[in-house]
Amino acid sequence: MRHNSLLILQIFFILFLTACNEQAPKSVSIEDHSKTIHCILNDQTLEILISKDSLTANFIYDGKTSLVNLLKFKDTYQILMKFDPQIGQLKINQDGTELTQFINQQEKRTSCKTITRD
Question: Could you say which residues of the chain have pLDDT below 70?
Fold first, then answer.
């Protein structure tokens, strides 16, 4: 129930930001197409599976699959997930080509490859 409430609040927040930004040029959002994003995180493969029109994604890392939420901020998406001190905080750009990791008060950027599925 708490997860659903958080998701609903995130959706309303995104809708609010979109409505406030109607004058801005239109850009492609990460959720405009179903896609798989491949990155390297801590020397291991990371896959992020995004379905079209959804800000919920499957996060496959270290042999485990987790459900994560994507929260849009301008041209990046914060990946909302259970905190893991080995991962820290993550965000990805709207094209799905760059992952940013914030860990131990440092920022690490990694290139990613995105494959559109539809």
Answer: 1-27
